[in-house]
Amino acid sequence: MRALIQRVSEASVTVEGELLGEIGPGLLILVCAMQGDGEDQASALAARIAKLRIFKDEAGKMNRSVRDTGGAALVVSQFTLAADTSRGNRPGFSAAAPPADGERLYRHFAAEIAACGIPTATGRFGADMKVRLLNDGPVTIWMES
After folding, report:
1. Which GO terms describe its cellular component?
2. 66 in helix, strand or coil?
3. Which of the following is catalytic: 6, 41, 55, 78?
4. Is 80 designated active site?
5. Would you tell me how many other CB atoms lie within 10 Å of the CB of residue 84?
6. Residue 16's CATH number
């Protein structure tokens, strides 16, 4: 699985004007299941992200996790993280998991983040979503399982 993690002051996701999820301080996690991924990869990535120390401590150093700060997570599916741009001008997405697997793993990943004690909001798999965020830092991290 691939994830792009952004430390945010706030974030929200809407579909056709309907607010699906919003958070205050925490993490916006854009996630993509790849060919061959399973629940083990989703669980491992969620556990790593839950422990990722990218929030400032009292000394101003990035030494606290989203759990440590009481922050939340907004988890949004984004198959375009599987883009292959090595040839031509049009990205290919064949490395992404098939839609049924992608949706199952996206839901599993979000549930695993929540199981880590992090309040979790989500988007809608496969929908044309509008994501708003106020990046804090900015801090943006790329992770793969």
Report:
1. cytoplasm
2. helix
3. 78
4. yes
5. 12
6. 3.50.80.10
Q: Of the residues 79, 109, 120, 122, which is catalytic? A: 79
Using the structure block, give the residue that is written with the tokens 């989203």: 66
Per-residue confidence of the chain (145 residues) as pLDDT tens digits?
999 999 999 999 999 999 999 999 999 999 999 999 999 999 999 999 999 999 999 999 999 999 999 999 999 999 999 999 999 999 999 999 999 999 999 999 999 999 999 999 999 999 999 999 999 999 999 999 9
Is residue 14 within 8 A of residue 129, CB to CB? The reply is yes
Nearest alpha carbon to residue 30 among 61, 59, 7, 5: 5
Q: Give catalytic status of residue 55 as yes or no.
A: no
Question: Letter for the amino acid at 112?
Answer: E
Q: Which structural domain, as residue segments, surrounds residue 108?
A: 2-136
